[in-house]
Amino acid sequence: MLRNLSRTIKFNKNQIRAFHDCPTNAIQPLRLLLIGCPGSGKGTQSSRLEKNFGVAHLSSGDLLRKNITEQTALGQQAQQYVADGKLVPDDLLISLIDSELLNVGNTNWLLDGFPRTISQAEALDATLNKLMQPLNLVINLQVPEDVILQRIMDRWIHIPSGRVYNLSYNPPRVPGLDDVTGEPLSKRPDDTPEVFKVRLDQHHAMATPLLDHYHDVVVNVKGNTSDEIYPQIESEIVNRLGVLPGTMPEAFSIASLRQRFQQTATAAAAMTFVDTNEEQVEEMAVGASN
Fold first, then answer.
1. Is 188 annotated as a binding residue?
2. Residue 114 burial (CB < 10 Å; 0-12/13-18/19+)?
3. Which has fewest Cβ within 10 Å: 11, 82, 109, 280?
4. Any binding-site annotation on 113?
5. One Pfam family for this entry, by name (predicted)?
6. Both 211 and 276 in a single domain?
7. Does residue 246 lie in a domain region?
């Protein structure tokens, strides 16, 4: 066991030194919430952040649509609300999000589309407090309403994967078909001017108290296009948290180090390592081999 732990120490030597040398804010795992009107580009920005920062993208809308397509118990309950352009009840969404947060564990993540109300925010706060993973950045996307309406009228999706296409600026290579699978694309049942107006009114009624709730970590980002907005988001992540594109800051967290060492030693030995001098453990390993 100790020999395995010694090999793990050598393998992670550079990471351990980097962990000690990094400034505190550079090793904070990213806990990001995106807020914006329906069609403001939360999905597009999430995809870029997922690619550039290696975060887990938790989209309440995508999770709901997947459950509706698969006709799960949750999907059947939510289906009519979505078709009518109404908000899905809190208890259904909270149950879904709680489950996903447990699944992603200690990785970096971003939330897209949840919470939308104060009651949802309070439920999320309670869950994150239990997990000791508080939000550290909230991005509020501000896009003109006429721009958003044109976006949703041109939007097509691949329901199984959640991939989104737009005929104006991100069309599929073959009209009507998903680029990856070749399967047919669909229109969302709520992508109509009438439903958009209902959802927009709902958003405005709820956005102000929600943004007030998170005022300490809210940043407003304005623009007409995704290319205008994304650099602002990336800049906020870098400046506020010290996280650089292409890096994996969660690899240097104490919790992650413990998790790595648990793979090659007992939990007790791995936890002890965090507070043990490297040379001492090396000596223990040598002694065990004699």
1. yes
2. buried
3. 280
4. yes
5. ADK_lid
6. no
7. no
